[in-house]
Fold DUF1818 family protein.
Amino acid sequence: MEICEGPGWRLVVDPTRAPFIALIGGDGWASELTAAELRALRQAASRLTAQHRAMADVLMAEEAVAMEVELPIGDPEAGGAGCLWLGLEGDRHQWTLQLVLTPTPGIRGIEGGWSAAASEAFSAALERLRPAEHGGGDQDW
């Protein structure tokens, strides 16, 4: 089990708790994620933070930026597909993250976000996560 947390954010990953192997949270909210949802969140956060790093040096101090990414979750051919939308908004020095999970049919949806103080730390914790290396399929997320 991996537990990472700080002011305004929380990330807990326990691959033995299938189907919801992760818990994410912000100020006043928390939700569980499946392995596929965690993979999509990690990928989306990585893309957005890399894009922000690449353009931060060319932004003027008063300029703001808003970026978003939407990734599919699930297998449409297996009868269900949802999506995860993640948005990053801020300036060259600080930014916030907003999350909307539209799940596969029959599973809960999520909306949440992290403050500017929490977003960078939460994203860094996601990047440090490493799937288990024992080859157990979806539990390795």
